[in-house]
Amino acid sequence: MNDAQYASHCRERLKAFASEFVTRTNSLDSEEPLRQLARAFADLPADSVYIEGPALVSRLFTTYPDFAPTFPRDLLWFLGGECLHFMPDDEIALYQRLDEERESASGRGEILDLEAARKRLRGE
Fold first, then answer.
1. What angle do CA 75, 62, 50 make, to 5 degrees?
2. Which residues contact 50 (CB under 8 A, 6 or more apart)?
3. Full 3-state SS string of the chain
4. Cα radius of gyration rounded to whole Å, the chain
5. pLDDT average, residue stretch 115-121
6. Any idea what the Cα angle at residue 33 is, between residues 67 and 79, rounded to 5°?
7. Cβ–Cβ < 8 Å for 57, 81
8. Structural domain of residue 108, as residue ranges?
């Protein structure tokens, strides 16, 4: 998986999360902040993911910690910056190794199966 494919994969994961988040909050009043946050994730422009995404994630994790476990962990790594504060050190180390393996495989013209590599690195 090259960088463009990885970015596309992560954007699709973010889109899926946003869609599910909107669905889960649809029954709330339109002025409810949680519903507005879900809508902000859904309306996030692709070219603003790195700019606006971390602020939305921070708002989710600090204001609505019950919803934080629904946010895909790999997107915390993908967005980086402030989002890394929501990951323990061992998880950061795992994603660092995954990135290194992905880059190495890309350099050899190979495609890394992220799920298989993640399981292998976790010892599963």
1. 35
2. 79
3. CCHHHHHHHHHHHHHHHHHHHHHHHCCCCCCCHHHHHHHHHHCCCHHHHHHHHHHHHHHHHHHCCCCHHHCCHHHHHHHCHHHHHHCCHHHHHHHHHHHHHHHHHHHCCCCCCHHHHHHHHHCC
4. 16
5. 87
6. 50
7. no
8. 3-122
Number of domains in the chain: 1
Tell me the pLDDT tens digit for each residue of 89-115: 999 999 999 989 988 988 888 888 888
Q: Residue 19 corresponds to which amino acid?
A: S
Q: pTM (2 decimals)?
A: 0.85
What is the residue whose two structure tokens read 């402030």?
A: 82
Nearest partner of 102 among 89, 90, 117, judged by Cα: 117
Q: How confident is the model at residue 1 (pLDDT cuts 50, 70, 90)?
A: low
Alpha carbon distance 37, 52 (integer Å): 12
Classify burial at 71, counting beta carbons within 10 Å of its beta carbon; exposed 0-12, middle 13-18, buried 19 or more: buried
